[in-house]
Amino acid sequence: MRQRRIDDALAQLRRAYLISPDTGVYLHLIGELLLLSGDHESALEAYQRAGQLDEYDRDWVRRWHLRSGLPSQMARVGWGAEIYEVDAQAR
Description:
The chain is mainly α. The chain has a single domain (3-83), classed as Serine Threonine Protein Phosphatase 5, Tetratricopeptide repeat, CATH 1.25.40. 66% of the residues lie in helices and 0% in strands. It has helices at 3-19, 24-36, 40-51, 55-68, 73-76. α1 (3-19) packs antiparallel against α2 (24-36) and α2 (24-36) packs antiparallel against α3 (40-51). The protein is globular.
C-alpha cells in the first residue's frame, strides 16, 4: 500500500474515532495502519487503547482477522494477543 493511501485511510479512521470514541475497532485499525507506516510506538499505543475496550470489539477484531485471512500486523512485529485477552474473571 502506498504511503499516501495509508495516510488517507488514517485520516478517515481518526475522523470516525472522533465521532465514535467508544468503537475499539477504529483504534485497532489505526494501529494496523500505523504499523504499516513504520510508527511502532503510536501503533502500540493505539492497540493498547483498543484492548481496554469491551469484549465485543475484541471479538470483532479477532473474527475480522479470521475472515479476511490477513494476520494482524501485531504478529509481524512480535506483539502478542494479550492486549486483547479477556480477563478470566470477567467471563
